[in-house]
Amino acid sequence: MSITIRIPAPLRSLTGQSQTVEGSGGSVCDCVDDLESRFAGIKQRLCDDSGELRRFINIYVNGEDIRFLSGLQTPVKDGDELSIVPAVAGG
Amino acid sequence: MPIEVNIPAPFRRLTGNRARVSADGDTVEQMLADLESQFPGFRDMLFDEQERVPPHIKIYVNGQEIAALNGLETALKDGDTVAIIPAIAGGSPQATLTADQRERYSRHIVLPHWGEDGQRKLMAAKVLVVGAGGLGSPVLLYLAGAGVGTLGIVEFDTVDISNLPRQILHHMHDLGRSKAQSAKGSLTDNNPDVNVVLHETCLSSENALDIIREYDVVVPAVDNLATRYLVNDACVLLGKPMVEASVLTYEGQCTVFLPGQGCYRCLYPAAPPPGLMPTPASAGVLSITPAVMGPIQAMETLKLILGIGEALSGRLLLFDSLTMEFRQVRIRRDPNCAVCGDHPTVTDLIDYNDFCGIAAGR
């Protein structure tokens, strides 16, 4: 069992259109780096140049916003679900 | 951690203009008594002559209206959030329904939690929908069908053929026509009782407060972030509930922001640079996604007016039509939010194109 990562529609061009990928790592930051090693360019869409999560993207671990947990250092473990949810403009 | 109580604007003269105060109590009744001891006169403003909370004032505990819980005996614990929200449905409901109205709304009137009382509340309510496009079309149609008394529409665009797959208020004979006029025609064809008020203008920092002020609930159904932030800030400043949704490609999001319980800026404190934001024109939007999310916005609006069910407040609903999944994540008010936080820095409307990094004149 690994970590289930839900990929939002705007980022699926980087994951071969996969909506869900399996990830690994002890923290959200580790998971992002793991994603980058497999889907080059995804980290730059999620994080700014200083490595901080972009303010128009939220990441939830098991439904909880990491901004109210430990940010990118929020620990994750096997079986957790990580959702990446960006701001969406359409209507 | 004590109980956090959100105070509506009309009551703040008693609380030194504070929008949020702390209180103690094991029940809502005890908490209100504590508020009276802290702010003498509070009880008189809240209760009527029969020592009851009148129907036009709703009290929510953690996003749930107390009428659906245990009323004034609803238990409270440290860390709970209580919101006191007066007059979601403004105006006086008409005394009785006509025979035609009883027939028209018969399938709703028989529903639990609805009845003729609920129908009259809807008919006295005023809802503003910003946009009559992909989301706005189904929102407006279902609110009109349900008999919401006044529907305001903010829309300045004209009908284009690329709109027709999803903007179901508009038809072939409306091509080139004002979307607002087209929408009004379709809505009154379904329900001539609805008072459709058109605001055929571009919503801006100059007019937003005056327009939004007149309504009970605001439903942004817009296709850009600058207008989302504008509507959000206006709703926070005016204390209006906002039922927000957005769509792109095969996905949608929806939530409800109640006054004092978070806002769009808490969720997304900043907009992406224009180059990093896919649009419906560039990435596409399947007609089914606003067809699903729009009626959800309509349902949340009806729930707020009727005071029934559990609002999507504190939850972000995520819809993926490819996997046909609905998921929810928890969202919260950010105490550091620039507009609704404990120490707001935004106390008036700003230049939202500038905020979103959009060049002037676009």
Terminal CA distance of chain B reads 48 Å
The portion of residues forming beta strands of chain B comes to: 15-25%
> What is the CATH topology of the largest domain in chain B?
Rossmann fold
List low-pLDDT spans of chain B: none
Q: Tell me, briefly, the overall form of chain B.
A: globular
Could you give me the name of the CATH homologous superfamily of the largest domain in chain B?
NAD(P)-binding Rossmann-like Domain
Biggest sheet of chain B: strands, sense, closure? 5 strands, mixed
Specify the number of helices of chain A: 2
* Overall residue-averaged pLDDT value of chain B: 91
Helix content of chain B: 25-40%
Largest sheet of chain A: 5 strands, mixed
Q: Please list the strands of the largest sheet of chain A in the order they lie side by side.
A: 2-1-5-3-4
Number of beta-strand segments of chain A: 5
Structural description of this entry:
- The complex is a heterodimer of chains A (91) and B (362).
- With 91 residues, chain A is of the alpha+beta class.
- Chain A has a single domain, classed as Roll (Ubiquitin-like (UB roll)).
- Chain A is built from two helices and five strands.
- A five-stranded mixed sheet of chain A has the order 2-1-5-3-4, with helices on one face.
- In chain A, a hairpin with a 2-residue loop joins β3 and β4.
- Chain A is globular and about 35 Å long.
- The model of chain A has no long low-confidence stretch (mean pLDDT 94).
- Chain B is 30% helix and 18% strand.
- The longest helix of chain B is centred in the last third of the chain and has 19 residues.
- In chain B, strands 2-1-5-3-4 form a five-stranded mixed sheet, covered by helices on one side. Chain B has a four-stranded parallel sheet with strand order 8-7-6-9, with helices on both faces. Chain B has a four-stranded antiparallel sheet with strand order 10-11-12-13, sandwiched between helices.
- Chain B is built from 13 helices and 13 strands.
- In chain B, β7, α7 and β8 form a beta-alpha-beta unit.
- The mean pLDDT of chain B is 91.
- By secondary structure, chain B is of the alpha/beta class.
- Chain B folds into two domains: 84 residues, Roll (Ubiquitin-like (UB roll)), CATH 3.10.20.30; 257 residues, NAD(P)-binding Rossmann-like Domain (Rossmann fold, 3-Layer(aba) Sandwich).
- At the A-B interface, β4 and β5 of A face β10, β11, β12 and β13 of B.
